[in-house]
Specification:
The protein is built from two helices and three strands; from the N terminus they run H-E-E-H-E. By secondary structure, it is α+β, with helices and mostly antiparallel strands. Helix 2 links the parallel strand 2 and strand 3. The radius of gyration is 12 Å and the shape is globular. 25% of the residues are buried. The model has no long low-confidence stretch (mean pLDDT 96).
Length: 76
């Protein structure tokens, strides 16, 4: 499984009803997530949900995800 697929799976598992799109490489990624779980939440709260879902992929010196260069969160 590619790192893009791992990030997508982690987000879709952690956020109810989420549909994620992940592109990138070299540790830098762009993520777009659509979920009704974002409804009524501020942008920062939405982004925290996504970062929380992928935190295990960003931990440590050899983490496969170094940076999220762009994140878009939308409600369904």
């Amino acid at each position: 499984m590619s790192i893009e697929e791992e990030v997508k799976k982690a987000i879709e598992t952690a956020i109810p009803g989420a549909q994620a799109s992940v592109v990138g490489g070299g540790g830098h990624f762009e993520i777009e997530v659509v979920s009704s779980a974002f409804e009524g939440k501020r942008i920062l709260e939405q982004q925290r949900l996504v970062y929380s879902a992928i935190s295990h992929l960003m931990a440590g010196d050899a983490a496969p995800v170094h940076a999220v260069d762009r994140m878009v969160c939308k409600t369904a």
